Amino acid sequence: FEDCVALLELIEAAPRADGAALPWAQIFSDFENERRPNAQAIAQMALENYIEMRDAVADPGYQLRRQLELELARRLPDHFVPRYSLVMFHRIPYVQARERGRLQLALLKELTAGAFSLAEIDINRAVEIARMRLPPLAY
Questions:
Q1: Is 33:65 a contact under the CB 8 Å cutoff?
Q2: Under a CB-based contact definition with an 8 Å cutoff, are residues 69 and 80 in contact?
Q3: What mean pLDDT do residues 103-131 have?
Q4: Number of C-beta neighbours around residue 45 at 10 A
């Protein structure tokens, strides 16, 4: 749907004289240039998600990171949004969602290093670190 919105915006912004045909070659060229990075990003995230679902969901470290992710998202809804939510429920470009997901995953790995349960993590400290390192998202 994001592609449809982007294409419609390019069509509506296309210069044309009264009654003249739309400059389709230019529109599609601009569309490809604009959307290619996002197409590559969503393809990469789909592959990463497949591998994660195939290999990681049973891993205790993954489960702990997921628990902390949900807690940070609950406490910092403007700073910490799970990558899945960014892709599915927000209009943030896929390139930005992929990068934000990488930053958040690195932070989760750091905050859960050496821990085996959520009870072992200082949640208040984790919230402060996430707030400092992750600027609020602009949707």
A1: no
A2: yes
A3: 98
A4: 19
The C-alpha atoms of residue 59 and residue 137 are separated, in whole angstroms, by 29
Neighbours of 72 (CB within 10 A): 25
pTM of the full predicted structure?
0.85
106: nearest Cα among 58, 55, 68: 68
pLDDT band per the 50, 70, 90 thresholds, residue 74: very high
Q: Show the tokens assigned to 133.
A: 């390192």
79/134 Cα distance (integer angstroms): 6
pLDDT, tens digit, 9 for 90 and up, residues 45-73: 999 999 999 999 899 999 999 999 999 99
Three-state secondary structure along the chain? CHHHHHHHHHHHHCCCCCCCCCCHHHHHHHHHHHHHHHHHHHHHHHHHHHHHHHHHCCCHHHHHHHHHHHHHHHHCCCCCCCHHHHHHHCCCCHHHHHHHHHHHHHHHHHHHCCCCCHHHCCHHHHHHHHHHHCCCCCC
